[in-house]
Amino acid sequence: MRAIDDQQQRLLDIIDLVYEGVEREQMLAALFTELRQLFTFSSGVLLPIDPGTFELQGTFSFDCPSENTEPYLQHYAAFDPYVCRPPDAVPINRTVRFSDIARPRQIDCSEFADFMAKVPYRHALAAVVGLDGQPMAAFSVHRRKDQRDFGSKEVAVFDRIAPHLGRALAWRSCGTIQPPSAGVGLLVVGATGKALFMNTAAQRLLSAGGVEHVLAALPPGSGRLWLGLQNYRVSRVPWRTASMLTRLALKDFEPATATSIDSAAAFWKVTRSPDASVTIVTLVPFGRRQDLRRRLAYYRLSPREIEIAESCIRSGLSQTRLAQRLCISEDTVKSHLRETYRKVGVGSRMELLATILGLDGESPPCPPGNGHAPRNQTN
Fold it and tell me: Is residue 370 part of a domain?
């Protein structure tokens, strides 16, 4: 029983550290180091995912030679069984074992086997971590061929950490890229003009027939499109070999009678072509605000208070639904919001929004201690 308690406490400590306001590489190094105290693994990586293209990008390697990252992204990513799954089949914040999606014999006959020998690894756990349906990074750990495969306990640990890591990475990205909750739409259109994939934001924005309007707005057109009450910038983005959208390029390409050699050749040809027979489009809302965290930090809120207050403001969800999204109790949400209201000097969510953003949307917040007493917390 004591061992179980210690393990649970260590897991909670890992979850806490991903929210700490330290530099990202320092946080990731601590995360992998502490995770190794819960179960063994030979190496680990975290690859950010571009929200506009689903492209994997090189970043943090743990006990894994960093020089392997670039060859992987340029050459082997298109053959990685994790990447080859269609985006709508990739569960966000849910762990998948390598052995669950690819048989050893299949891997041994594929080009990806060359890369596995260089790392080296044979078994892997991976989760695409993110927030609000938007992937932020691929998070994985590996074991060598002479080691046993990962089991259900390791999967359960990864599942506990994944949503917290996804949120932490999303909030850390504020101010550098558009946070996923702001509604950046991603649309992939095939050669016939049919939508092959839409992320959650695009599904909310586009009704029946909306795809044609989006394509018509692409440059050399206006590059702008009104959807609902919001003006969006419509842009075409380049195809990347290391994109998780790779599988969509082959949707209507490979003949059913193709041999494995023919399929591999076709796969490589398509993934290396400039347009890969698909068009990737992003719908980015104008007038984006990127200083919300800075304004919240002005009131000396703790990192967790900032994260919960920001999610509260951006999502508009009730406290019950917000707690479900954040994987914490409703009492925890209420406690952090109550403390936030006290520090800011407001009594409700609407007052918090008006104070933090300013009634004109641009004026800086009033300094703390301005004489306004907090009202009764009603929201």
Answer: no
Domain of residue 349: give its range. 292-357
Burial 43-79 (b: 16+ CB within 10 A, else e): bbbbbbbbbbbbbbebbbbbebeeebbeebbebbbbb
Domain count for the chain, please give it. 3
**Same structural domain, 161 and 190:** no
pLDDT category at 360 given cuts 50, 70, 90 is: very low
48 in a structural domain: yes
Over the chain, what is the mean pLDDT? Answer: 80
* Maximum average pLDDT range among 120-129, 304-313, 365-374: 120-129
Q: How far is CA 265 from CA 78, 79, 182, 260, 340, in A?
A: 12, 12, 40, 9, 57
Q: Element (H or E) spanning 304, and its range? A: helix 303-315
Examine residue 279 and state whether it is found in any structural domain, yes or no: yes
CATH code of the domain in which 108 resides: 3.30.450.40
Q: Is residue 35 domain-shared with residue 104, that is, in the same domain? A: yes
Q: What is the pTM of this model?
A: 0.66
How many CB atoms sit inside 10 A of residue 361's CB?
8
Task: State the Cα torsion 204-136-314-294 to the nearest 10°.
Answer: -150
pLDDT of res. 250: 64
61-70, 153-162, 179-188, 360-369: which has the minimum mean pLDDT? Answer: 360-369
